[in-house]
C-alpha cells in the first residue's frame, strides 16, 4: 500500500502520520511518535509486550493496522501517568518491584489497567486469567500478581 496521511488519537492528542494503512500500530507508535512503552516482542500478538489500550480495551499493537485505529482512542504506557504522578497501576508495580528485565512490564501494566476498567475489584483468579497471555521470561510472576492485586485495592495475603 502507498503511504497516506492518517490521523490517530494517541494519549489524548491527534497525530497525522504518513504511512500505509496496513502499517502495524506498534511501528507508528515507536518509530513515528517516539513512544517506547510498547515493545516489539513476538510480532504475532502472542506475547503481550506491545499491549496498548484502544478505547480502553487491551489490544496487541503489533498486529493491528493503523487504519483500524482511525477515530479511536489509543493509550500507551506513556499516556497513563508521569514520572511525578504515576497512574495507580504504575505505582503498584513500582511499589511491588514487579519487574526484573522490564520487557513484559508494558503489557502487564496495560492489561491490568484494562481489567480494572471493566472489573474494579477482581479476584486473584480473574487477574491470573486476564494476564495469562502476557509472557514474562524472568519469573517475576508473583510480584506482578501482587502489583495487580495492590492496584485493585485487594489484600495481598492471598499470595503469601
What's a quick, concise take on this entry?
With 160 residues, this protein is of the alpha+beta class.
Q: What are the low-pLDDT stretches, counting only 5+ consecutive residues below 50?
A: none
When the domains are counted, the total is 2
Strand content: 15-25%
Shape: elongated
SSE topology string: EEHEEEHHHH
Fill in the keyword field for this structure.
2 domains, five-stranded mixed beta sheet, 5 helices, DNA polymerase, domain 1, alpha+beta, Ubiquitin-like (UB roll), elongated, single chain, 160 residues
Explain how this protein is built:
31% of the residues lie in helices and 16% in strands. By secondary structure, the protein is α+β, with helices and mostly antiparallel strands. The protein has two domains: 76 residues, Ubiquitin-like (UB roll), CATH 3.10.20.30; 72 residues, [2Fe-2S]-binding domain (DNA polymerase, domain 1, Orthogonal Bundle). It has a five-stranded mixed beta sheet with strand order 2-1-5-3-4, sandwiched between helices. Helix 2 crosses helix 5. The chain is elongated and about 55 Å long.
List the helices and strands and how they pair.
Layout: E1 4-10, E2 13-19, H1 25-32, E3 51-54, E4 57-60, E5 73-75, H2 88-95, H3 105-118, H4 124-131, H5 141-151
Parallel strand pairs: 1-5
Antiparallel strand pairs: 1-2, 3-4, 3-5
Helix pairs in contact: 2-5
Amino acid at each position: 500500500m502507498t503511504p497516506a496521511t492518517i490521523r490517530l488519537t494517541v494519549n489524548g492528542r491527534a497525530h497525522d502520520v504518513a504511512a500505509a494503512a496496513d502499517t502495524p500500530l506498534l511501528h507508528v507508535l515507536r518509530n513515528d511518535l517516539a513512544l517506547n512503552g510498547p515493545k516489539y516482542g513476538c510480532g504475532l500478538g502472542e506475547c503481550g509486550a506491545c499491549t496498548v489500550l484502544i478505547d480502553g480495551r487491551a489490544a496487541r499493537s503489533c498486529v493491528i493496522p493503523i487504519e483500524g485505529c482511525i477515530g479511536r482512542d489509543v493509550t500507551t504506557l506513556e499516556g497513563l501517568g508521569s514520572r511525578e504522578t504515576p497512574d495507580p497501576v504504575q505505582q503498584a508495580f513500582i511499589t511491588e518491584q514487579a519487574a526484573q528485565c522490564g520487557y513484559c512490564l508494558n503489557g502487564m501494566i496495560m492489561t491490568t489497567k484494562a481489567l480494572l476498567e471493566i472489573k474494579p475489584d477482581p479476584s486473584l483468579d480473574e487477574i491470573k486469567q486476564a494476564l495469562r497471555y502476557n509472557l514474562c521470561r524472568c519469573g517475576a510472576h508473583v510480584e506482578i500478581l501482587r502489583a495487580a492485586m495492590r492496584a485493585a485495592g485487594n489484600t495481598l495475603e492471598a499470595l503469601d
